Amino acid sequence: RLLCPLLSLRFSLGGCSGAAMPKGTGRIVIDPFTNGLLTTLFGLEVVAVFAVLLALPGALPAGCPLTGPQAFAALAVTCLALFPLIGLVKLIAGHACALLSRTALAHLGDPVAKVKTRNKLRDQSWQLTIHSAMTALEAYILFVDGGGEHWLDDYRSLWTPHPHQQVNSKRSVHLLYLLQMAIWIVTCASHRFLEERHKDYVMMYVHHLVTIALFALSYGFNFVRIGTAVIFLHDSSDIVIDLLKMANYLKLEGRRGGFLVEGTFAATLGVWAYTRLYLYPVRIVWQGVWYGSREVVTAPGAYGMDGFTAAAGSPFTRGHS
User: Fold this and answer.
1) Predicted pLDDT of residue 183
2) Percentage of the chain with pLDDT > 90?
3) Residue pair 152/143 in contact by the 8 Å Cβ criterion
4) Neighbours of 115 (CB within 10 A)
5) How many CA atoms lie within 13 Å of 26's alpha carbon, on the beta-carbon side?
6) C-beta separation of 154 from 230 below 8 A
7) Cα–Cα distance between 125 and 85 in angstroms, integer?
8) Which of 113, 126, 225, 254 lies 20 to 30 A from 91 at CA?
């Protein structure tokens, strides 16, 4: 997610934003080279994910209830099932919002009368659906399943034992990664081939590619504990963004709109300040990654540290006793 703004800036500074709207056309034109490059990368990512599941039996982390071929089949079936689900969600949302716009919101000038606005609302409805559903599953893993986990408030639980030795037997964790991988593969394909193009087309394309890679690497190297915590913070905070965008498309602002745009904007500021500016940098990056990995993974007697200590010829493995 951090790479997307940097890459979009790179395209802009290089004189090639990747997406442009010629005057008078009202149509987004994508740079063919940029689009072709990103599509090639997407194809390679998908092929690599499915090939690893078939060709490398030990690629799945310990505790996964599926074999490689079974995971291959489950991921393929889930991807295929998501395409009609996306269409159904967008169809229902489109008709519901159009009806709402013509009736209850007629005093606002039928805000989604334009096809372009209605399409934006339909696309955002799918994002709201997956963010809400995944947040519910992630909350179940962190706070309910098996008594919950302390992955958000105890950095030791992220690294004890070392991720390469962890056996995460909760089926819900593996289900989460399966669903997330399928969702982002399908979302990326839909973004490329089905959805209406927007000005942020290239930036969002890069976002989807980076997300797929992060899920694959996180699962393959068994960093599922910290991965689940990171996913929860991102998905839960994206819900208010989705609601803000939808309220804005419906022109629910000011007294006539019940101040819903203003309310969701304030909620977005609060939620993002807590999840993205406090929990993520403090609990995940500082305590979980920087401090936690140093103090737990490199502690004397930890996995791999005996050999390191013997090679170094010192009982001190962290620069202090």
Assistant:
1) 95
2) 55
3) no
4) 9
5) 2
6) no
7) 12
8) 254
Residue 77 neighbours by CB under 8 Å, 6+ apart: none
pLDDT higher than threshold 60 for residue 16: no
The candidate with the shortest Cα–Cα distance to 253, out of 108, 130, 109, 86, is 108
Partner residues linked to 30 by β-bridges: 19
Look-up of token digits 């269409």: 87
Decide: 60 and 66 in contact? Cβ < 8 Å. yes
Count other C-beta atoms under 10 Å from residue 307's C-beta.
9
Residues with Cβ within 8 Å of residue 223, at least 6 apart in sequence: 163, 217
For residue 29, list its beta bridge partners: 20
**Mean pLDDT in the chain?**
85
Residues 6 or more apart whose Cβ sits within 8 Å of residue 271: 236, 237, 240
Give the contacts of 269 (CB within 8 A, at least 6 positions apart). none
| Residue of higher predicted confidence among 191 and 319 | 191
Return the amino acid letter for 66: L
Is a pLDDT exceeding 80 seen at residue 154?
yes
Which residue, among 41, 3, 21, has the nearest Cα to 196 in the 3D structure? 21
Length of the chain: 321
The beta strands (E) that lie in 48-192 are given as none
